[in-house]
Amino acid sequence: MKTSVVSLTCCAGCVSSFLNAGDALLTILSEDFEIVYSPTFVDLKEVPEVDLAIVEGGVRTQADESLIREVRAKSKTLVALGICATHGGITTLGNIKSVRKLLEKQYTLLDASKLPELEDLMYPICNFVDVDYYISGCPPMPSLIVHSLKSITNKKTPERHQSVVCTECHRKIIPAKLERLYGIYEKEADPELCLVSQGFICLGSLTRDGCGAPCPRAGFTCFGCRGPPDSLLYRTRDIYTFLVKVISKRTAIPEENIKKELYRNPFVFHTFIFSKFERFKARERVI
Amino acid sequence: MSQKREITISPTTRIEGHGKVTITLDESGNVADAQFYATEIRGFDYFLKGMEAERLPFIISRICGVCSTAHVLASAKAIENAYGAEITETAKKLRELLLMGQIISNHSLVFFFLTLPDFWFSPEEDPSKRNIFQIMREKPEVGRKAIALRNFATQILNIIGKREVHIVSVIPGGLINSLKERERAILLKLSENVCAITKEALELGKELFEKNWQEFKMAGDYKTNYMALTNNGAMEFYDGKIRVVNHEGETIAEFDAQQYMQNIEEKRYEWTYAKFAYLKALGWPNGIVQVGPTPRLNVNRRAATKIADKELQEFKTKFGSPAHATLLFDYARLIDLIYACERANEILEDESITRNDVRVKIKAKQGIGIGIVEAPRGTLAHMYSLTRNGRLRDLKLIIPTQINNAAINLNVKDAASEFIRRGEVKPGLLNRVEMVIRAYDPCIKCATRNVGENVSLEIKNYDGKLLKTISS
What we know:
The complex is a heterodimer.
Chain A: E1 2-7, H1 13-19, H2 23-31, E2 34-37, E3 50-56, E4 59-61, H3 62-73, E5 75-81, H4 83-86, H5 97-109, E6 118-123, E7 133-135, H6 142-153, H7 214-218, H8 236-251, H9 255-264, H10 270-273
Parallel strand pairs in A: 1-2, 1-3, 3-5, 5-7
Antiparallel strand pairs in A: 4-6
Helix pairs in contact in A: 8-9
Chain B: E1 5-9, E2 19-25, E3 31-38, H1 44-47, H2 56-60, H3 68-83, H4 89-120, H5 132-138, H6 140-161, E4 170-171, E5 174-175, H7 181-216, E6 225-231, E7 234-235, E8 241-245, E9 251-255, H8 260-263, E10 264-267, E11 276-279, E12 289-290, H9 293-299, H10 306-319, H11 328-349, E13 367-375, E14 378-386, E15 392-398, H12 400-419, E16 420-421, E17 424-425, H13 429-439, H14 444-447, E18 457-460, E19 466-470
Parallel strand pairs in B: 6-12
Antiparallel strand pairs in B: 1-2, 2-3, 4-5, 6-7, 6-8, 8-9, 10-11, 13-14, 14-15, 16-17, 18-19
Helix pairs in contact in B: 3-4, 4-6, 4-11, 5-6, 6-7, 7-11, 10-11, 12-13
């Protein structure tokens, strides 16, 4: 299968994750794929016609936009790999108005004739082209990438993950009675108890599973890099209310106090609040 | 040939991030100027302001997915520095081990996937074949070696860092998890096997390098200052002092991390998103300095591990100290790699790394902190100003690619002048120019976290109108 690997505005972490797949990577490279285009690995400079395009990164500049349109036109199947491609990711923090102004100002100080024009916001690729499969994550786990790609090359629909990270987490949910919420370095987490019931703002309950819950398992709060699960996919406004209720239920802290706390920390939600994921055409394509 | 022309390579391939090269030819068709620039923008320096310090290390690692661990460590160190916190010995050792994992992961990627094809194939080889996938088809065992090395690094990052890319275990104050004896045993076993593979990679690299050396040494050897962390003259990645040597190898400055920002100044040119960093005391352009694999060898006299030390001495004997030829970065990178494997093995043999004291309690307070580590591409510095509530007021990051930016540009010009005479563009030229860039393993993702970048070659006429874009 002729494959291209394309990077738009991103950190290149998703392709790094793909390269971490070890022996499974060797198998897929020798049996399924022929990577014909990839500025990171291959010297070909023009986008070729391919069977499969794997795209990491979102659209921040007009160069990104024209590239993704060209890639879409020249590929039979297109996979959005990672949160930047599927939702916009970390760079969407720059969608805040004040930051956007600063960026634009800095941009006009530069010699824009040699540099690509900026888009007004950071967009996921589905705002410009039709996407066949979305594999979210920051980055998605190597095994998830390899399994999904393997299914796609065999013309099968990849296994979908429709539930939440909590279903993959070993921690026991035992409601507690707490006074307030805690930052991750304010106290050590109990290794067996649910992080939310210990007062940490863990987003596992509103994040799609499929990652194996590596962060909460380690004692680090889930930060939502897999995006919302099926149940919350088209109801992004409910995400906030939903989390407030979950935290309140597990800590006995009044909802009002939790709301105040969350307002003070918008960064907790960056993946959800600033992302523009309303354009998902069908949840069946979200893996 | 009576017109000025411009040649552009876009995008530069087999490097991390989007880059572009423009070579301007004068009326007689010789190289007048050459520029390497970046074409992305993301805005990290702006949108992180106001963020709680505790979230910074794992968010800021998103600057670069290739060297994310180095960013996490520099970030945690900067916060601890601002808060006046001292982490435990156990935590330090585990962090150094993570950094070794980072070096192995990056250098095995750069050697096998990005630069090896240049040494492996002749310059006239069909460009569509000049890549690691073709090498893997011809010699599958090379691919298996690359994957075994990466696998070891992945295991270190996964077991200690809890994720392979963008680790989560490192927090201000130490780590959230201690290492279990069982996990140490797994990693120790892997590390023994990996040292053997690295030695083979080094032999392969040296053989290919020596075969091409006569040609390589012409491709840019601009003499500059060199900077790296040092532990009294021994190679060091996690801690230590910053030492600068001049082009003759004399130490011209040595300072603590705290004095870093007083010693380094940044400059901006309007044609690129990536800034240029240089030594303040010497000014611009005398203060141009390089960081990364060769500078690490130029600054230090020895390495604390056995094979790496032997290789370091051999390198100095062969190429002098300081060594200047740009493509030596590719050679020196293999010495880094062997050091990282040996050092990882050494740390893993130490049973005390499984102690439970990996974390100290820290308290937010107002202040400025600097965190420095040797990232794969050279000295990486994070400086934060934090409010008394532990939020980010301001930040300044100096990234290796920004420091090397000047040298990359000078050497690209040097290499282009070597290969372009009287308007004649020799075959394989573009790739030769790209090889110079590739040697630095520049990370445009890091250098342009603020703005976006891409590299390519265009031929333009006197008015700057594009005549032709060449893809090598």
